[in-house]
Amino acid sequence: TAIMTTSAWLNIYKSNQWPSFDDYAAWKSSCWMVSPLASCTCPIGLKEYICKHSIGLAIILNMHQIKDETRCTPLGKRKTPGRPKKVRTAWLP
Question: What pLDDT band is residue 87 in, cutting at 50, 70 and 90?
Fold first, then answer.
């Protein structure tokens, strides 16, 4: 529950020594390390190569430019809640 400074977090990261697994789990979820367009230590960034944090940081630092065509493209329809309707046979009206 104590607040950890950035330098203390990085010192623990470099030493790779934790008293228990619970301390490691708390340390792991306390902060994420993000490299622009490279990697991130968030749960999605560990599974995939590039996550939204690394792309967002690259956009903020002007390392990646978004084209105007991409901004104007709609993302698509949202799904309606509920179960899909049952498909009727072709010969019934």
Answer: confident
